[in-house]
Write a structure and sequence with these properties.
552 residues, globular, five-stranded parallel sheet, alpha/beta, binds 3-acetylpyridine adenine dinucleotide, single chain, eight-stranded mixed sheet
Length: 552
């Protein structure tokens, strides 16, 4: 068996030796491989799918697009890549984003470093050797100094918590792992459960195919028109000429998208002025303009309700039946505190005579039957069912791998009361394990591209720091972790986010601890904090000395 990089023999069970194992070949895994290779590290990327792309590999449901404008949702690390790739629409479709990521994999010759169709089952830290043993479902046992979880925030899908799915005689598809060959609902009676981003994007398209569509809604969501359109060449060229400044703006913004910072509180202006501003945001067709219209939209319930009511008035103006419009109108949470949506004709779809809405608050789901779906009121018959029921977000992909740190402690147990990390990147007691866009970092409260690049760059710099100094391992201190977790909660408590039952709070998965799982302090503020930690010699981390393997 070969030697590990610290010169000591790998354990007998190891089938390979690497400097780093990266789990996942999505946006984060691809860039992490690129950066570690450039450092000269022998890196193995392990990917469960048959191709690259992560989220964009799995989420192939009709209408899947990114809610961040395509000109902002791309890597910034290569000016050549920026110039040679041309986006075709304001909001890129899933196939176009996947083509982009495949292009990146080919252009930077990354595929050879990736093992596809393979899942990481476990990773165990050997304190004595300061190294990890990573086990896969294909029987590999990789001895590695570093493990980097690039597993995504929304990659473990969840089904509705009702029995009977196996008894349904037709197909059931989950938006989060859609058949690659596509699905045609033409002539079928379709039932859709779930009205989050995936449901709201896909329902208008599926309802155009199906002969009859029934949507089961537990919580209505706020959605705004995407205003998608082809990108004219002049707009693309202007961005290509200005990318450098634009990227800098992204990195120092609140959500990873440069927009004018609000200066006024909602009630500092008249109702007419407010509504004109909301109308402007509505017309712009993006997630941020309305939410960032005023300084207190996400911190003050009354201010927030002015924006919420503006959107509800739009729903009433689009949906012809007032009772239906009211059922589609969110009233149980402040706008923005559950992920808002962008749509192309979502509310309009409910004006069609062959599209029906079932309010699960009035008549809850009971079971899936052989013929369809049963609520407390009646049974609905379908030819096909779609679960648009979301994900075990933020922590699901991390705790589903059996990760064991110092003393054999499992990450899942460590996080039994909610995720605890330092900066969302490291976990005390799990040396050399890094989580890209991990819980308590801005992650899902940002343009993921921006946050992913920042984390990958930061982790790569830390690894370079260790290797330059011959330090075998680094571990977040308990104290730094505790302070960061407290800071995350404190910042969150200053906002309306904790008032909602959302996947941001873990509320969508029964039994999951209810904590705000991402950092809402802002992408720029967070970046400064990470940079400060690095500049202060990685303050809050303890450097683990070389092992003495001659000791018994
Ligand atoms: O999932 P969701 P998603 N019985 O969790 C309902 C990103 N994304 O896949 O709200 C009945 O938002 C659930 O009801 P409730 C984006 O960050 C991005 O749509 O929990 N209903 C909800 O309506 C997004 O937020 C993009 O009461 C049940 C729905 O299912 C995230 O992924 C596109 C239920 C789930 O909504 C997740 O979006 C798509 C049950 N037992 C996704 N369980 C873009 O950028 C769940 N529901 C465009």
């Amino acid at each position: 068996m070969s030697e590990s990089s610290n010169g000591h023999p790998a354990p007998v069970e190891a089938t390979d030796v690497a400097d780093a194992v990266v789990v996942g070949a999505g946006v984060a895994g691809l860039y992490q491989l690129y950066r570690l290779r450039a450092l000269g590290l022998r890196t193995r990327v392990i990917e469960a799918g048959a191709g690259v792309g992560g989220t964009w590999y799995w989420n192939r449901y009709p209408g899947a697009r990114c809610d961040v404008e395509s000109l902002s949702y791309s890597y910034s690390f290569s000016p050549e890549l920026e110039q040679e790739w041309t986006w075709s629409e304001k909001y890129a479709t899933q196939p176009e984003i996947l083509r982009y990521l495949e292009h990146v994999a080919d252009r930077f010759d990354l595929r050879g470093g990736i093992t596809f169709d393979t899942r990481v089952d476990s990773a165990a830290y050997d304190e004595r050797r300061r190294r990890w043993l990573v086990a896969t479902d294909t029987g590999e046992r990789i001895d590695a100094q570093f493990v980097i979880m690039a597993t995504g925030c929304l990659s473990v899908s969840k089904a509705p918590e009702i029995p009977g799915a196996e008894s349904f005689r037709g197909p059931i598809h989950h938006t989060g792992h859609w058949p690659h060959e596509g699905v045609d609902f033409t002539g079928q009676r379709l039932g859709v459960i779930g009205t989050g981003s995936s449901g709201i994007q896909s329902i208008p398209i599926m309802a155009r195919q199906a002969v009859d569509t029934t949507v089961f809604q537990r919580t209505p969501n706020f959605s705004m028109p995407a205003g998608n359109r082809p990108l004219p060449a002049e707009e693309v060229d202007a961005m290509k000429a200005n990318y450098l400044a634009w990227r800098e703006g992204q990195r120092h913004s609140g959500f990873g998208v440069p927009i004018p910072e609000p200066t006024l509180a909602a009630f500092e202006v008249s109702e007419a002025e407010r509504n004109a501003k909301y109308q402007d945001g509505w017309d712009r067709g993006n997630l941020v303009s309305i939410l960032a219209a005023y300084t207190d939209t996400l911190t003050d319930a009354e201010a927030n309700d002015t924006a919420a009511e503006f959107i509800r008035s739009k729903i009433r103006s689009i949906v012809h039946d007032p009772e239906l419009a009211e059922t589609l109108s969110p009233r149980s949470f402040p706008v923005g505190t559950k992920r808002p949506c962008l749509d192309s004709g979502y509310y309009e779809t409910f004006n069609k005579p062959n599209v029906h809405l079932v309010d699960l608050r009035a008549t809850p789901l009971v079971e899936i039957t052989e013929r369809g779906v049963r609520t407390s009121e009646r049974e609905y018959e379908f030819d096909a069912i779609v679960f648009a029921t979301g994900f075990d977000a933020m922590t699901g992909a991390l705790t589903s791998v059996d990760i064991r740190g110092v003393g054999g402690v499992s990450l899942k147990d460590r996080w039994a009361d909610g995720p605890r990390t330092y900066l969302g990147i490291a976990v005390a007691g799990f040396p050399n394990l890094f989580t890209i866009t991990g819980p308590t970092s801005p992650s899902v409260f940002s343009n993921m591209m921006v946050s992913i690049e920042q984390h990958v760059d930061w982790v790569t710099d830390l690894i370079a720091h260790l290797r330059d100094r011959g330090i075998p391992a680094v571990d977040a201190t308990e104290r730094a972790e505790q302070e960061w977790v407290a800071h995350n909660i404190e910042v969150g408590d200053g906002t309306l986010y904790p008032t909602a039952e959302s996947w941001y709070m873990g509320s969508n998965v029964p039994g999951k601890p209810r904590v705000l799982m991402a950092y809402i302090g802002g992408v720029g503020v967070y970046r400064d904090k990470c940079d400060e930690v690095a500049a202060n010699g990685y303050e809050g981390f303890a450097f683990v000395p070389e092992p003495n393997l001659t000791r018994a």
